[in-house]
Write a structure and sequence with these properties.
Number of helices: 9
Number of strands: 15
Distance between the termini: 43 Å
Structural class: alpha/beta
CATH class of the largest domain: Alpha Beta
Mean pLDDT: 95
Strand content: 15-25%
Radius of gyration: 20 Å
Number of domains: 2
Largest sheet: 9 strands, mixed
Shape: globular
CATH superfamily of the largest domain: Dihydrodipicolinate Reductase, domain 2
């Protein structure tokens, strides 16, 4: 892909490594990196012809005059950076969780609209190859009438005093954690595969007393098309996988003519109704980057939009529906009742 877009990035934390790797392979023209960690910023700068390093975001924007900014920082600074970029007419990619609340998300969307700036949310899970393949299979009606989907999230990284400290220590301080930080991915995947959600019921809990937010919970979903969904998350338990961060769990989709099962190794199995033997679905994907190279896939999709005009997934306005579902999950947990989304 040609170096035909001027990009800047803010953030050099744990997950940023996957962004930088993808941008490098996509051959973008990275003209600036902003970070308070000069060592990490310098390390990434060397990969991009020693592009300039900044400690102040607005200074970087005004100095480099980019067309696009990739925001890879915790949610606390999202709205601030979004407004600075929008005032300077720079299009935006913002890491999830998108801002700190649905109120801030709406403010960000309203502000960028007024400034006529595009904003997309970096949500890469729907670009993981197993979900792309599952989507293809579902479109063939192989399973017949769909009944329900369940996902058991079991990364096994949440036990003890040192939970999350090695990679993303701010996880321990988040007041809303399991749903806002992680299950939001599965909300997006559920909507991608099965459509919009009509109602939710949630029961959330905190098992590790060393953190602030919830780290386990069960959420029931009813989709507008009548399909039922179950998210069963527990960050302290694990699942069978060579890499427990690959799929972070297991999915089962059930229909009138059979079932699909996704395991922790990214393998998909189908079983016809009435049979006792599963058959493995053959499809290709590569162990590169993050989770089947989903960050690369998503960032390539973004560039295809900005450079070629292809339709953009996960615009901030569309992503707002995920945040609405998230908000109702927390309301349901507080009220201990099933809630219809309105």
């Amino acid at each position: 892909m040609k170096k035909s877009i001027r990009l800047v990035v803010v953030g050099t934390g744990y997950f940023s490594q996957f962004h930088y790797d993808a941008w490098k392979r996509l051959n973008v023209n990275l003209v600036g990196i902003c970070s308070l960690n000069k060592n990490e910023a310098s390390k990434y700068s060397k990969q991009f012809e020693n592009c300039e390093v900044f400690s102040d975001f607005e200074t970087m924007i005004k100095t480099t005059k980019p067309e696009l900014v990739d925001i890879i920082v915790p949610p606390l600074n999202h709205l601030k950076f979004i407004k600075i970029a929008a005032r300077n007419k720079v299009d935006i990619i913002c890491q999830k969780p998108f801002t700190t609340s649905i109120k801030e998300a709406k403010e960000a969307i309203s502000f960028t609209k007024r400034k006529k700036v595009k904003i997309a949310v970096h949500e890469n899970f729907r670009f993981q190859p197993w979900y792309i393949k599952i989507d293809e299979i579902l479109k063939t009606s192989l399973l017949g009438d769909l009944y329900q989907v369940s996902f058991r999230m079991r990364p096994g990284d949440g036990q003890g005093e040192k939970a999350y400290l090695e990679r993303q220590p701010y996880f321990q301080k988040m007041e809303r954690f399991l749903i806002h930080e992680t299950a939001i991915h599965l909300i997006d995947v559920f909507r991608f595969l099965f459509g919009d959600i009509k109602s939710v019921f949630a029961n959330l809990s905190k098992l590790n007393t060393n953190i602030n937010g919830e780290d386990a919970g069960i959420v029931f979903f009813e989709f507008k098309n009548g399909i039922r969904g179950l998210f069963d998350g527990n960050r302290l338990s694990d699942h069978i996988a060579l890499d427990r961060r690959l799929t972070i769990g297991e999915m089962l989709i059930e229909g009138s003519m059979g079932t699909l099962r996704l395991n922790g190794n990214g393998e998909i199995f189908k079983r016809k109704f009435g049979d006792n033997i599963e058959k493995k679905v053959n499809y290709k994907w590569f162990k590169k980057g993050f989770a089947g190279d989903s960050v690369f896939r998503f960032q390539k999709h973004l560039l295809n939009h900005f450079l070629k005009g292809e339709k953009l997934m996960n615009t901030a306005e569309e992503y707002l529906e995920n945040l609405k579902v998230e908000e109702y999950i927390y309301k349901s947990n507080f009220k201990k009742k099933l809630l219809d989304l309105v």
